[in-house]
Amino acid sequence: MLAAGGIPVIDADLVAREVVEPGKPALRDIAARFPGVLRRDGSLDRKALAALVFADAGERAALNAIVHPRIAEEVANRMAALAQAGQRVAVYEAALIVENGLQRDLDGLILVTAPPEAQIARTLLRDGTSESEARARIASQLSAEEKARHATVVIDNSGSEANLSAQVQRLIARLRQES
């Protein structure tokens, strides 16, 4: 909705997928650390990797140490390109901003919340994972209450799409006014 409203959005999930494409150093490092997570075509088997890292905090930390610096570098490059092009505001979309302390380097933090059961249902639909895998992913993150302590704006995504859209439109107006 932000992108549709003209606010550039840099999606950490998309960047994360790009930095682990075949031929990229991150994929080589992941394959060395986590044998058996590559498909025959040399691409990353995300489900196999997720099964390893969401079941073990140490394994997740090892993966994050490989991937997060590369994501940060690419995001910084994209933000710099937007700034150089005269863009005064952009949004970095990522699930683990607070967990990684990245909010300290941002001008603000927008938190989108939904009840845990809605998060699980949406994860099942989006990712095609099992309920236990969805619960493990959500449990690996800080609670919405903890994240809200760092937020500049909180958007409640527990209601209708119309309600969500109204909140996002108010946010877009605010971002344009503040920039």
Provide keyphrases for this structure:
Rossmann fold, 4 strands, 8% strand, mainly alpha, 54% helix, 179 residues
What report would you give on this structure?
By secondary structure, the chain is mainly alpha-helical. Helix content is 54%, strand content 8%. The two termini are 18 Å apart. The relative contact order is 0.14.
Strand content: 5-15%
Return the string of H and E elements. EHHHHEEHHHEH
Q: Biggest sheet, open or closed, and with what strands and sense?
A: 2 strands, parallel
Shape: globular
Number of strands: 4
CATH topology: Rossmann fold
The tally of helices reads 8
Radius of gyration: 17 Å
Q: Which oligomeric form is depicted?
A: single chain
Task: Write a brief caption for the model.
The chain is 54% helix and 8% strand. It is mainly alpha-helical. The mean pLDDT is 93.
Strand-helix topology:
Layout: E1 9-11, H1 12-19, H2 25-33, H3 46-53, H4 57-84, E2 91-93, E3 110-113, H5 116-127, H6 131-139, H7 144-148, E4 153-156, H8 161-178
Parallel strand pairs: 1-2, 3-4
Helix pairs in contact: 1-4, 2-4, 5-6
